[in-house]
Amino acid sequence: MKPAWDRLGDDYKASDSVMIVDVDCTADGKATCSKMGVQGYPTIKYFMAGDKKGKDYSGGREYDALKSFVSKTLDKPVCDAVTKKNCAKNEVEFLTKMDGKTKAELKNELTEKKMELETIKSEMKAATKEYNSKTQAWKKRQAVLNKANQLLDKLIKAPEAKAEL
Fold first, then answer.
1. What is the DSSP string of 2-57?
2. I need a surface site. Which of 24, 76, 154, 165 has the fewest CB within 10 A?
3. Rounded to an integer, what distance in angstroms lies between the CA atom of residue 69 and that of residue 75?
4. pLDDT higher than threshold 90 for residue 52
């Protein structure tokens, strides 16, 4: 597989959207491989923008299969913040708002966006915790009600008991 991988790396060495990387999990890359959950070799992982965990690639290991996967899945145009080339409409609108700002103003904007992102992450974590707690309570209540319903059904279907004297 190595020749196909190296050829693929050569094909994309100047790419803005694709990076082909080797990590030796038996040497200096052990920590990285452990962090990424690599257990067997060779393992191919791919990462989409913003994805820190990556996904396992399970396609063919020959050059044509690798090249086809990269072309279809990963080789997407990247927004150029300076020229606005390949940018989506909302990205162009945002970049246009940033036009004319100094580097210091842009750094302040970045700091604010990072803080806002951290706030959202914190709020999501709290909301998820609350949701999980409520879900657990609902499931317990649901189990109690299901058991009560089963017992009531049995009582309803049971033959009438004769009164003892």
1. HHHHHHHHHHTTT-SS-------TTTTTHHHHHHTT--SSS--EE--TT-SS-EE-
2. 165
3. 9
4. no
CA distances from 88 to 2, 10, 73, 107 (A): 36, 29, 18, 23
Rounded to the nearest angstrom, the gap between the alpha carbon of residue 135 and the centroid of all alpha carbons in its chain is 23
Give the rounded distance of the alpha carbon of 41 from its chain centre: 23
CA–CA dist 165, 163 (Å, integer): 6
Spatial distance between the Cα atoms of 95 and 84, rounded to a whole number of angstroms: 8
Say which residue the tokens 């690639």 belong to: 57
* Superfamily of 1-74 according to CATH: Glutaredoxin (3.40.30.10)
Give the pLDDT confidence of 2-42 residue by residue, as tens digits. Answer: 899 999 999 989 887 888 888 888 888 888 888 888 887 78
Confidence of residue 162 (pLDDT cuts 50, 70, 90): low
Query: Whole-prediction pTM value?
Result: 0.53
- Tell me what the pLDDT averaged over the chain comes to: 90
Indicate the Cα dihedral angle 78, 84, 89, 95, nearest 10°.
Answer: 110
* Structural contact between residues 74 and 17, judged by C-beta atoms closer than 8 angstroms: yes
